[in-house]
Specification:
Nucleotidyltransferase, domain 5, seven-stranded antiparallel sheet, transferase, DNA-dir_DNA_pol_B_multi_dom, nucleotide binding
Length: 801
Amino acid sequence: MVDLLITMNGWLFDIYYQKDRMILWIKERKGNVKRLEYLWSPSIYVTSDLKSELVDLVGNSKISSSIKEYQFEYKFEHPSSVIVDKCKRNVTLRLTLSDSIHILNLAKRIERLSIRFGHYRLYNVDISPEQSFLYEKDLYPLGLYNIEEIRSTESVQTNIYQVVNDKNDDIDSFEYIVPNFKFLSFELISERKSIRNDLEDRILKIKIISFEKDNVIKEDFSISEENELETILEFAYEINRIDPDIIITKGGDQFLFPHLFHRAKANKIENQLLINLNRESNIEYLLKKNKLFSNKSIGSNDLSSTSYISYGKVYFKPQPFFLYGRIHIDINNSFIYRDNGLEGLAELSRVCRIPLQLASRSTIGKCLSSLYFYNAHKKDILIPWKPITSEIFKSFSDLLKVDKGGFVFESKPGAYDNVAEFDFISLYPNIMLRKNISSDTINCACCKSATDNKVPELEHLYHLCKKRIGIVPLSLKTVLDRRLEYKKRKNLCISKNDEYLKNCYDNRQTALKWILVTSFGYLGFSNSKFGRIDAHITVCAFARDILMKTSKIAEKHGFDVIHGIVDSIWISKIDNIEYSLSVADSAHRYINLKKDIEEQTGFSISFEGVYKWIVFDSSKINPDLPALNRYFGVFEDGTIKMRGIETRRHDTPELFVYFQEELMKIMSAYSNIHEITKCLPILESIYKKYINLICTKKISYTDLIFTKRMSKASNEYADRDTIENCVLKQLTNNGKSLNAGEEIKYIITNFYHENFLERAIPIELIDENDIKYDTKRYLELLKETYDSVTKFFYSQIPKFD
């Protein structure tokens, strides 16, 4: 006899794997939080050319000891196997494990048993158990569910739960509600023995703030007891009393939590701390999960942290400190939360089906991969452990044709009046969607003879599938459609003056934007499970063709192409006859051009507006050549747009940012180049004002700080006389070492000193009562900052003999 009973209704808040079950934490509508145990174990898949070889594998004693159970299933081994009217499913061995900790070792043992390349092919190995569970059960974080408990009178085993969508929520919803979570943030005040963040420093005080979703502060207080032990115990008590759902930190992964845990261990109260930090009460599980942080010899930078390269920049990712039953979000390690708040993080977590804590720390590529994996799972497609998709062979002449990237119309450096800008809307993701570009759709076997599926310029090399949609475009369709809908809703909220919903929709669409921004690059990433360099090349070929067509259409409409890069184009009317046109006639010309571009290319393009004036900068190395990504200008409505100049750089001291912004604000009031040349004396007066501030030392040292991201670890830099090496040496000499991807902050003290160690000082060593900086060097940089936005206007002034 089986009874079905609805036990609760709430949001899937946290999820993690524990031995042979998945732990689900549900945030009920009434505010309570409940823990559920869902019996489940992860699986991996193995294929081979013969079923008999899979049977032999199961019987191998080196394998059977790690397997809970096995079964044979029929799956698609490759996405390209999914052919209309001809489904090629392979016999697959599903191995279910008793504990996820054995997955990687089991996969390696099976790999070693292979007697030839491709003998045993492994799938779904490196997907987290939590993600696999969400795919398999078709669940998503922060989904609103009815939890139905299935009770059997014939069995006394652990309760079985059925999780079903509430009628008010589903994965396609745009109006889903993020529950009113309880938040807490804290800060540690420690006894500092050096500039290094040392785990041995005693904790003197702990500051706590508890607040709600809308940043409404509930409590704000500090804990400072007679000794460190009592302070930590009181902190643990307050965590338990306040019972936050989400703990927000700045540097919680890299230092705050490791420091707190280390000091608790030194006082022999780590168990009490862990039990209160988490809602999970299994202390053995918590200690096991935090074993990396329990090593007494550990240093703040010695954990299992990683440095990685993304788009040419090196980033540092510390070992995460996860909580169980609560969520820990480290703002320093989560740019999605930092930029788009909980709404953006919730959208990313739901759409990509990644638990909140993991999503907050994941790269966008990892989130995008999870969306690919989910769609592959829905289609019964296996996810390869080690992708082996090879690049299609090309001759030398073909390599020259394909290896071009995006198209660029080089501008002539200088200042221009009345220039219009058009930008294609999410061009690359839309090309991938509309042209069906994916690793599994390039040169498919089913559409080889078709004639309307070739790639521009590369017709002899590539064709695209017309019978089935690839994993990549299928996934991007979800993101593109959702973002477009959120933008529509945002604009509607603006017209209704609904600030709350406007911000909500804006944060969600911006989070989705990051997926679209990275989707093209990830298509050519060597480790992408569903990426392929040929797919990357194909997208570039279509983009070049589209930009070339756009330029020709613009020219037919009587425009000159001033500049163009990848998916944007800047144009001006030939002979600048715009001056003789009415505002209505001028606007009509641009509307007609936009319409023709969209009709002839098939892609949506945005008319960004007309610049009153715009400057395309020159290369710093060769002034006769353009700097492709460095320009600034002012639209007719007064909006300032700047790209690549000092104000936009993250390493520029605030002094120069304020200076350049003040210059741009003055310049934005003028209608053309001629008017700006007349206002140069006003700009010069601002320049002199900042010269005086620097010379009279009337500047806060915080406005003089340079910030540089390290491309290597401290000990990997060559012994060269650079400013950065000067700062690193001083930090190292004072006991602080940095990993690749971390940042240094410093002030220039004596740029031209013979001893390079005297040229700058890291902010950690600054004496605020005796600030010294190099006036000469800062004046030189001020001049460079001034010239960067004014030099082309000085060149417009007539010169007389």
